[in-house]
């Protein structure tokens, strides 16, 4: 099936209607809490992150408090998340920078964000979009998978898919589309067994009826999180 510009527009329209109420699953009260939650969410479910951050933020909800907690204390609080040693090291280093250089505040600047330890394009885009209402498309594993399967944006890396989605989706819908694609990936277009029979995009999807094998062949060398950073 050939995916035209008209097809992509219709895909976006359907997603916008089906997931009109989509919003972030992570729980947070401010940009700092969101930043920490997103760092923790790499290779970990949002449900688990919410359990961990509820406990963590009750004890340390600021950059200064995280620094005071120290590495061992932080590791103890987040040990339920995957790769907690590396995450604790990055969160502590990021908190030190925020406390020292930004008065404990999270900068509303993409370049400043990706310069922080443990913060990659996905995390920076989430923070810019959700915390600061800046148009951005964060490409996580769900967005990467759905975009490739729909041929809404085809790429072997998250950045390639991000650029493709920016071309396919009007800028004013970038932030919302990020959530539409995530929820579609979670509910319908699942990794191993997509629920194609229940998909509202069935008539538009070039991968309809497959198990994602075409996507895997086309993107055999894909990187879903940039290799190192979330």
Q: What report would you give on this structure?
A:
By secondary structure, this protein is mostly helical. It folds into two domains: 101 residues, Helix-hairpin-Helix base-excision DNA repair enzymes (C-terminal) (Endonuclease Iii, domain 2); 101 residues, Hypothetical protein, domain 2 (Endonuclease III, domain 1). It contains eleven helices and no strands. Helix 2 crosses helix 3, helix 2 runs antiparallel to helix 7 and helix 3 crosses helix 4. The longest helix has 18 residues. It is elongated, with a radius of gyration of 18 Å. The C terminus is likely disordered.
Secondary structure elements and pairings:
Elements: H1 5-18, H2 31-40, H3 46-59, H4 63-78, H5 84-101, H6 110-114, H7 121-131, H8 141-150, H9 158-168, H10 174-187, H11 213-218
Radius of gyration, in angstroms, nearest whole number: 18 Å
* Tally of helical runs: 11
Number of domains: 2
- Percent helix, as a range, is 55-70%
**Mean model confidence by pLDDT:** 91
Could you give the count of β-strands? 0
What are the segments in which pLDDT stays under 50 over at least 5 consecutive residues?
213-228
CATH class annotation of the largest domain: Mainly Alpha
Descriptive keywords:
56% helix; Endonuclease III, domain 1; Endonuclease Iii, domain 2; 2 domains; 230 residues; 11 helices; mainly alpha; elongated
Compact description:
The protein has 230 residues and is mainly α. The protein has eleven helices and no strands.
């Amino acid at each position: 099936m050939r995916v035209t510009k008209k097809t992509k527009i219709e895909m976006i329209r359907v997603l916008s209607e089906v997931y009109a109420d989509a919003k972030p699953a992570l729980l947070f009260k401010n940009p700092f809490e969101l930043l920490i939650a997103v760092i923790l969410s790499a290779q970990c479910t949002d449900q688990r992150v919410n359990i961990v951050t509820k406990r963590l933020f009750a004890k340390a909800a600021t950059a200064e408090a995280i620094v005071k907690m120290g590495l061992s204390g932080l590791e103890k609080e987040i040990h339920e998340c995957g790769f907690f040693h590396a995450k604790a090291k990055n969160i502590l280093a990021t908190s030190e920078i925020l406390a020292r250089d930004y008065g404990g505040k999270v900068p509303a600047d993409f370049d400043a964000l990706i310069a922080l330890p443990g913060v990659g394009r996905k995390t920076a885009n989430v923070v810019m979009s959700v915390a600061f209402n800046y148009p951005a498309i964060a490409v996580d594993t769900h967005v990467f998978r759905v975009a490739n399967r729909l041929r809404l944006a085809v790429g072997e890396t998250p950045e390639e898919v991000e650029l493709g989605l920016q071309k396919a989706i009007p800028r004013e819908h970038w932030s919302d589309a990020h959530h539409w694609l995530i929820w579609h990936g979670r509910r319908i277009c699942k990794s191993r067994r997509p629920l194609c029979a229940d998909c509202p995009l069935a008539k538009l999807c070039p991968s309809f009826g497959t198990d994602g094998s075409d996507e895997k062949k086309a993107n055999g060398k894909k990187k879903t999180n940039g290799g190192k950073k979330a």
